[in-house]
Specification:
With 147 residues, the protein is mainly alpha-helical. It has four helices and no strands. Helices cover 73% and strands 0% of the residues. Helix 1 packs antiparallel against helix 2, helix 1 packs across helix 4 and helix 3 runs antiparallel to helix 4.
């Protein structure tokens, strides 16, 4: 329980009510991630990657302060957060691979067929995930949070 004079009137069961507390830091991270979410509505790879970084920042903060929160609630929230981050990571990995395969195919035209095969193999999954990633991420940023 906090002992500082500015925290004496705070409700210790609500971490977010403490001045300059981890909870307030979480809200700032959620707000930044929400801004990045809106920017990612274009589905541009660079914006999706920025959203992923914002979610990673939020996840690290939640993991660090998880002992202060209810275990089940935090675990469920982290699972949703991690899933969104994993999907965005896959999309970013494919975007990086696409760029590299394009360069390699230009440098060595004999690789064009192989590059096309690899991208074609991943194309349907990439398209599917890209089309639904924001709807699956929305509950993480606007749904129930553990603080």
């Amino acid at each position: 329980m906090p002992t500082c004079s500015s925290c004496q009137d705070a409700d210790p069961t609500r971490v977010s009510s403490w001045p300059n507390s981890p909870g307030n830091g979480w809200f700032a991270r959620v707000e930044r991630a929400r801004e990045r979410f809106h920017a990612a509505s274009s589905l541009e790879p660079a914006q999706l990657h920025r959203l992923r970084i914002g979610l990673k920042d939020l996840r690290y903060a939640v993991e660090f302060f998880a002992p202060l929160l209810g275990h089940k609630t935090v675990r469920a929230y982290l699972e949703r957060l991690t899933q969104a981050q994993t999907t965005l990571g896959y999309l970013q990995d494919l975007e990086v691979a696409r760029g590299r395969l394009e360069i390699w195919a230009q440098e060595a035209p004999s690789l064009s067929l192989a590059a096309g095969f690899v991208l074609g193999w991943h194309g349907p999954r990439y398209s599917n995930l890209r089309s639904r990633v924001l709807e699956e991420t929305r509950p993480v940023l606007w749904g129930h949070v553990p603080w």
